[in-house]
Amino acid sequence: MDASTDRIIVSSEEEGMRLDRVLTLVYPDHSRSFFQKLIENGNVTVNEVKEKPSKILTEDDVIKVAFPEPEELNVLPEDIPLDVLYEDDDVILINKPKGMVVHPAAGHFTGTLVNALLYHCHDLSGINGVIRPGIVHRIDRDTTGVLIVCKNDEAHLCLAKQLKEHSVHRIYVGLVNGILKEDEGTLSYPIGRHPTDRKKMAVRPDGKEAVTHYRVLKRYDRYTLSEFRLETGRTHQIRVHMAKIGHPLVGDEVYGTGKCEFKTDGQMLHARTFGFIHPRTGKYMEFESPLPEYFETVLKTLERRA
Q1: Long-range contacts for 301-304 (Cβ within 8 Å, ≥24 apart)?
Q2: Half-sphere exposure of 124 (CA within 13 A, CB side)
Q3: Residue 281 DSSP class
Q4: What is the pLDDT of residues 4-46, one digit of tens each?
């Protein structure tokens, strides 16, 4: 039984494109292979006719997409240690370690923060379903630091509203390649899904507004330690913005050069500060996480070279 059927009218810009390509543009959270399988299974029609993924589209063609009911996955609690910064009946703030995925996804169904939380809490908001219970925002697998999780739906809605209104205070610390000339500045480049690599984001004119404020903390021989304040919260925002201006984060294998003299296991980015209005008390609360050991080790190496 279909969960929903969407109707899409092909625009003039999309004329001449393949059917599977247009669907990935309309639904950037799904891969082309996902839609190829959906088309082959007969869940997609063009002008009421079942077509192949390679079907070339014409302006005003009508595409109908019948999304199947999502498979219900059984996400199990796992006894994984958590570094809890704060916890009450409404929220829990975690200091997420490097390498931990926030919630189950393709290739990562165990060992995630959600698996650990289900063991630790037992009570998480249900707004995001069984895969992402309590998760109101994310940080990348290889980014460390403060992350807030909601334990009931009321708290979840309140925090989601604060995030949408950009009233949450989020400060990151990162080490970037090269020397930033200005002591501080603002990067305002819209971000959307990369046009050819669906696992990446990119600066693109039709993307969503993304604003990052940066401030130099210290300059080293070939690197700059910087502080980043997020005004918006797009996927990979800091990583994309810094790569855009020619200063990718050290260790960033996706947006960087791929060369790194340090063993960082991914980008050197740490979510240091998270401030928010508590959903029950209405009081402002702020939590900080110290730089992880590997980050401090790299900085000590740079200090010795100075």
Answers
A1: 301/262, 302/220, 302/221, 302/223
A2: 25
A3: T
A4: 678 899 988 889 999 998 998 887 667 788 889 899 999 999 9
Structure tokens belonging to residue 250: 């050290």
Core vs surface per residue 97-127: b (16+ CB within 10 A) or e: ebebbbbbeeeebeebbbbbbbebbeebbeb
Place of tokens 């500045």: 185
Q: How many CB atoms lie within 10 A of CB 129?
A: 12
Biggest alpha carbon–alpha carbon distance for the chain = 68
pTM of the shown model:
0.75
Measured CA to CA, the distance from residue 63 to residue 58 in angstroms comes to 11
Give catalytic residue positions: 140
Per-residue pLDDT tens over the stretch 264-279 = 989 999 999 999 999 9
Per DSSP (E only), the strands in the chain are 2-9, 44-46, 49-50, 62-68, 84-87, 91-96, 144-150, 169-177, 184-188, 191-193, 201-203, 211-219, 223-230, 269-277, 284-288
Tokens of 283: 């009081």
Strand residue runs (E) in 24-151:
44-46, 49-50, 62-68, 84-87, 91-96, 144-150
C-alpha separations of 247 from 20, 152, 234 in Å: 34, 40, 18
| Domains and their CATH numbers in the chain | 2-68 (3.10.290.10), 72-165 (3.30.2350.10), 166-306 (3.30.2350.10)
Tokens of 136: 């109101």
Among 73, 86, 145, 82, residue whose Cα is nearest residue 113: 82
Q: Quote the CA–CA distance of 289 and 285 in Å, as a whole number.
A: 14
Q: What is the mean pLDDT of the chain?
A: 90
